[in-house]
Amino acid sequence: MIRQLLNGNEAAAAAARLAKIEVMAAYPITPASGVMEGLSRHIAAGELRCNFIRVESDHSALASLIGAALCGVRTFSATNSQGLAYMSELLYHASGLRLPVVMAVVNRALSAPHSRFPEHGDAMAQEASGWIQLYCENNQEVLDTLLQAFYLAEDEQVSLPAMVNYESYIQSHTREVVEVPAQEEVDAFLPRRLQAWLDVEHPRGINVVTGPELYMDYKYAQDEALQRALAVCGQVNEAFAARFGRDWGGAAEGYRLEGAELAMVTMGSMAATARMAVDQLRDEGQKVGLLKVRLFRPFPAPRILRMLVGVQTVLVIDRNIIYGSGGALAREVRSVLSHQSDTPVYSFIAGLGGREVGTGDLVKMYHDARQAQASGKKPAPYAWYGLTG
Q1: Which domain holds residue 213?
Q2: H-helix or E-strand spanning residue 144
Q3: Residue 376 maps to which CATH number?
Q4: Cα separation, 283 vs 277, whole angstroms
Q5: pTM
Q6: Number of structural domains the chain divides into
Q7: 389 domain-assigned
Q8: Taking a C-beta distance cutoff of 8 angstroms, is the pair 304, 263 a contact?
Q9: What is the pLDDT at residue 339?
């Protein structure tokens, strides 16, 4: 293991190198292009034997990886925002064909208006595509989660594609100290397990027209595989922690939840800010904790429910908006708690397009939720925080 100062894109490239990817296809798109650049340097330096397909679009990138994955090789790409939207058609192909493609998604706000800055809306727009979705708090988690994503996607109980999400500029272009494991340790953790679907000696059809008598059953099997990823995610995290000494909590992680009356719930980089807000509020005598959601698809409902036992109030902060509905994370948490009618869920939309959300902002959200609860008001479906108008 060595310690290096890496930004999120460099950490993602290091993870892909350690995973010994065999085919990479990517189109340069800000701010994810740094991943492609980093891997290009690894290939040029002879540190990675990988076929790099330089494509004309993000759509073509995923099309190339679908073909490569059908031949049984380990595949990888990186994209964000409009590029991920352009891939949408093929996201469904990759998951429907049960291909363990792994992709780094550097969350960037979707146009219009045009933005280069972070929010989770690009990935949320693809939540129904059948991909595993993991979210990272810091650059160490980017590297570690990508390694875990290959393991999870390739597990024979799952065999589904996975996207690892981290935020533009906040993580992609900010350097932190990252522990990079030794190649032999990663080889032991992540053995080569892929099997080719296509064999020139035994040709067969792929994605043929399927009638009503089979289609629904196939989709049931696909959903069952995604649900199995919940248990496998925990197993992967345990195996990773045992070998590398870093435990990310699997599907979700709690912080100072013991005895908490209110739990903040969030994911991505905002979890780091929420930890500081929780510490500040605890110092003031407030009984508050943090629940960080790491696995959004499939949503870890049973684990979330267990972690929130004894919590009287929930405060969810979303860096996304499902227009006319609210935050995607708040929607999921409300669904989990739906049979506990006495547990109010206060939902804030914050940080869209890179709008700053500091410790003081989260402390204010906490007090706003407490004040609203004390007044007897029923929680609004969602509230926008930090508007300038």
Answers
A1: 2-244
A2: helix 139-154
A3: 3.40.50.920
A4: 10
A5: 0.97
A6: 2
A7: no
A8: no
A9: 77
Measured distance CA(269)–CA(291) in Å, rounded: 13
Cα-trace Rg, the chain: 21
Q: Specify the pLDDT at position 172.
A: 98
Q: In the predicted model, is pLDDT for residue 270 greater than 90?
A: yes
From residue 248, alpha-carbon distances to 125, 154, 301, 326, 341 in Å are 25, 20, 18, 28, 30
Distance of CA 337 to the CA centre of its chain: 22
Same domain, 172 and 199: yes
Mean pLDDT across the chain: 96
Other beta carbons within 10 angstroms of residue 336's beta carbon come to 19
Tokens of 155: 């597990």
Q: Are 77 and 26 in contact (CB under 8 A)?
A: yes
> Beta strands 162-167 and 102-107: pairing type?
parallel
- Three-state secondary-structure class, residue 349: strand
pLDDT tens column, 345-380: 999 999 999 999 999 999 999 999 999 999 988 899
CATH no. for residue 233?
3.40.50.970
**Res 341 pLDDT > 80:** no
**Number of C-beta neighbours around residue 112 at 10 A:** 6
pLDDT value of residue 86:
98
More confident residue, 190 or 378: 190
Of 244, 276, 294, the residue that ends a domain is 244
160: in domain: yes
Cα 250 from Cα 71, distance rounded (Å) = 30
Strands (DSSP E) found in the chain = 2-6, 23-26, 51-54, 75-79, 102-107, 132-135, 162-167, 176-180, 252-255, 262-266, 288-293, 295-297, 313-318, 345-349, 383-384
End-to-end CA distance of the chain: 49
The answer to whether residues 228 and 259 belong to one domain is no
Give 153's contacts (C-beta < 8 A, 6+ positions apart). 100, 101, 102, 132, 159, 160, 161, 162
